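Deadline looming. Please check this record:
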Amino acid sequence: MKASNVKGFTLIEALVTLALFAIITTSVAPSVSNFFTRNKVAAIVNNHSSALQLARHTAISQNVFVVLCPTKDMQTCDADWNQTKMIFVDENADNSLDANEEIIGSADMVKGFTIKSTQNLIRFAPVSTAQTVNTTIRICPTEDSSLHSRALVLSNVGRVRIVRDPAQIDCSA
């Protein structure tokens, strides 16, 4: 009888390959998940920071009051920072959007994150101040609020600083 010269994988080789694949997949999956969460948090922080900068710049350059606040309907301010944020020129400085006032920007609502602020709204004055006390906007992932949390700290002169140390951010408050 002639020996067969068949090429292929043996059962043991296939099992070893499968075991190595399983080990590599389980070790890489958490880091990929962290990568996506970290990038999503960075995008949210950048979006909100840009909204704050737009409001401040508009107030100074156009010599008007500008309000940034959360809203459910793009008509009235709300206290829930998980909603969409609107930025509008507040000509009569009453902290509410009137029919003759213009919406100049917005920041979209974000799912999978909890966003909280120490203020219900942020008002910028034409003289480069935020017209509020120092304000902190905390951005916390819903499923893992401690590891990837970030905060935007707005000084009373309107400057934005990003806090990246999760130990300094209280997502439970």
Q: What stands out?
A: Strands lie at 66-71, 84-89, 103-107, 113-117, 122-124, 135-141, 150-154, 160-163. DSSP finds one helix and eight strands in the chain. The CA atoms of residues 23 and 35 lie 19 Å apart.
